[in-house]
Structures are given as structure tokens and as C-alpha cells.
Amino acid sequence: MNFLRRRLSDSSFVANLPNGYMMDLQRPDNSTSSPASPAMERKHPQPPQPSQSSSTGTSIFSSISSAMKQTTQAAAGLIDHSTSPTPPVAPKPKILLVIDDAHTEWAKYFQGKKVNGEFDIRVEQAEFSELNLAAYVTGGCMVDMQVMRNGTKVVRSFKPDFVLIRQHAYSMALGEDFRSLIIGLQYGGIHTVNSLYSIYNFCSKPWVFSQLIKIFNSLGPEKFPLVEQTFFPSHKQMVTTPNFPVVVKLGHAHAGMGKVKVENQHDFRDMASIVAMARTYATAEPFIDSKYDIRIQKIGNNYKAYMRTSISGNWKANTGSAMLEQIAMTERYRLWADACAEMFGGLDICAVKAVHSKDGKDYIIEVMDSSMPLIGEHVEEDRQLIADLVVSKMTQLVTTAGSTPSPLRPWPPQVQPQSVKTQPGPQLAQLSQPRPPPQGGPRQPQASQPPRTNAPPQQRLSPQGQQPQSPMSTSPQQQRSPGSPQQVRSATGSSPVQASKAGVFPPQQPRPPAQGRAPSQPSPTETSKQQANPHPHLNKSQSLTNTFSISESSQRGNPNEDEAKAETIRNLRKSFASLFSD
Asked: Where does the record place the Synapsin pre-ATP-grasp domain (predicted)?
């Protein structure tokens, strides 16, 4: 306090203090003896004006700091929330459509299996007769299914990701033709086992047998013994056969249907009449007195061979009672299965049927695709093999779809400039009507003009490299002056006075050389004006055109633009004077 009183004696210090400070400092000592008293706090002097701005800035800074702290705390709370364990979102399951009868429940064979280790498999099963579909170019394939489950009609619509086909798509005996559904699946880009291409080709047994003929011609009769067969497109060709008895097969049928054993020529003619009524094709092959039938099946990389012997005495081993047993898989049988599995782009599931005759020879008679029936004691194992094969194909499809580019990907940028090139200005001018080159385009130097003007008019070329034109084929646009809206027309039918009415304009573009001018003798005035470069074959319009070209070249070549403009005006005046002199 004593220090403050001594400072109050200083007039300069007092003058700088506000009035509030003077009033508080001049109070008695007892009122200010306790600086920590509440009265002292209430009578605390107001800070000076500069301190108010600083305190305001401090308060703003403190507010910002507190807001930042709150934001930091909130962010820390969010981070803690994100790091907390959350239940994983299950990916959308893949839909597998199995086309088979209701006797086999395929859903249990795919239970617990995942595609690529992450996608579950939802199995939808129905027969061909219970399906309908609509296929789109970009929308895939929408399948409608109407099935009976425990006496209840179930209707569903879905987009299958994969299809397992275990039924025949076409059978003439049963009157079932579902080839349109195969086409719809192919249209929608659906992948199947077997492939849709092979399934569609298997809708005609003679067509499949033609593929066996190719294998027979490739491997030979020793490695691939194929039965002799004759194809008749209609009944008209069924006159006779070399040997009897024969087995006649009508059209496309399965499970021994449509097959008849013919003993003699009379029965064969009767059979031809049946073919005529059926309005279909037929095949005939020699009857083989078999000891047993052989069946070699291939599911993926798994091979099995079976032997079936008829007990009922029927010549059809698949009809009546038969005894079935599994036999050893030999290299010869494996060759048959592998050779047949390569037809139509590859068969994932197939079976080869052969007949072992009593004389010890084998004859291959047929090949089946994924619709083959499963036989023997290992039916459950075979179904599990088919399920594993389908899962592997679906996994391969998912992996390939994620790595290969889309067919709708746009054209790469680096390829576009190579195939679509920008045409330069002079080439575009050739495609359109002839006209002077644009400003900044190629122009002829002044030294090259005299030889060009001395040539005959019909042999001159424009700067764009156009073909020579006849004197009467010159277009008006080729004779247009650069800066004038009027046309400087040729001497054949137009007055040169029209060019003088256009006025004097500085040239804007280099003009092409005049074409199609009728040669005329120059006047004495023109001869005196052009002593350095005489033009004996140019008329007044051509002289004016050359003056424009020379002035333009001199203007572009001279760095001093004022002198170039003055020279241009002088040349134009001289040219107009020569025109009016006549």
C-alpha cells in the first residue's frame, strides 16, 4: 500500500489510471487492510479497456479448449464403442437349384457345406415339370417353382446361382420336352452340372452316338470297341438290314423304352410302319447275345465299374430281375470313361454302358450324362460325391467371378487413342468443301509463289493437296477474299467493280492460290507495278489475290506490325488503282 501511495505522487502514473482505481486507492487503510475480504472482492477495480479485449480472447480460447476436450472425449467414446465386439453380418447364401424327383432329398447332402468357406448354400429342389422361368440380358434368370410338399402347394420365386440337373430334359416316350427351360437357363447365364451345352446336346441319342463314332475313329476298335449301328432319318429308308436279328430303337427314349428286337425281314418291315406312325428317326444295331452288361461311371475324379447280369432271362438287362455287383476298375474301362467325358466341352458326371458278349467281346452301346441313375451299394457315397463336386464348382465360380474383369467394363483409355485418331485440320478440309486453310495452318512461302503462278491454272493445287480442277469448276468459296464479305469473281461473267465496293480490310487468313482463271494479258500499269515478278498469265483478280498473299506473307514475316499494315494498305491501293485504270 505504501508503494502505491508513492506511485500516486507521480503525476504521469496517476494520469494513466482510470477513475475507479483512484477512488479505491484513496480509501482508509482499515477498509483495505484485508485484501481477501469479500468487500475487497466486490470493490475490485474494473480492468482497463485493453484488458477487456484480452479477457474476451481468453474466454473464447477457453471455450474452444473445452469444446475440443468434449469432442476428444466423444471421439474416444466412439472408438471404444467401435472396438467393442459386434455380431458379424452373415453373407447372403448362395441358391442351388436341384432338378430331380422328390425321392431324393438333396438338402441334407449340402447341410453344413459352404461356398468358398463363407457362403451358406440354400437348396431348392423341384422337377422340370414344376418349374417356369424368365431370363433377361442383364437381370439373370428368375425361376418360379410350384411344388407339393406334404400335401401343401409351395410357390417360390428366386434367382439361382447354380443348378444341378439330375433329370432328362427330353423324352419322347413320356412326352416331356423341357428343352426350353435349358435354353432359358443358358440365356440367363446360369452355371450347371453338367454344362447346359452338353445337356442340350444329350437330348438326341443319335447325336450323342455320332460323338462316340469320332472317339472310335480316333482310338480304334481295339481300345474303343463301338457297336455297329445304322441311322434312318425316317421310315422311308428302312428297307432292309444286312443281318438279323437286330435291335431297333425309336427316337429318343430312356430306361429300355422304344427298343424292339427284330428277328427277320417281315418284322423289320412292320417296324418301319411303326416308325412312320411315330414320325421320328430310328436306329438299328445287331443283337448281341450278352453274358452281362458293364457300366463305368465317373463323378468328378471318382470311378466305379459295375456288372449287371439278368436273372429273369430278358434280353434287356435293365428290365426284370438282375444281379448287380461292383467289379475292378481297369485301365481299359478308365480310358472309356475319360474319352467320353471329353465330349461337348467336358462332362463332370457321365457313365458308359457296354455289353459283354458270350464270345468274350465288349461292345460300347451308349453314354449317359448327369441324369444317369445311381446304382449299387454306394448310392449314398455317390450322392455325397456329387454334392462335393457341386460345391467345388460353385467355389470356383465365386473365385473366378471376383478375379476376372467384367465383360461390360468400358474400353481402356490407353486403347481409345490408338483406334480413334483425331483428324488434323487439313485432312478434315479435304472431306468437306474446299476452303482456305485456317489461320496458323500451312502457308506457302513468298519465294514459292512465282513458279506456282506461272503454271497453267487447271494444273494448280491448293495448299490442302486437292485434285486439279477445271476452269469452270472453281467454287465461289475458293475465290473469297480473306477479309471481305464480297466475292472477287472471275472474268467470265462478273464485274471487277464489285470487289472495290467491299472496302479495304486487313487480311485475316491466308488465301489459297486462284484456280480456274482464264488467262489474260496484263495491262501496262500492272507490268510497271510488278517488274520484279511478272505475271503474264494472270488477270486483275488474280493479281489482287496474289497481292493479298504477298501482303499476308510479308505481314507475318515482318516483326514490325505497323510497317506490315502500312505496306498492306499501299499494296491494296495500288491494286485497286490498276483495276480502275481500265
From this structure: 92-190
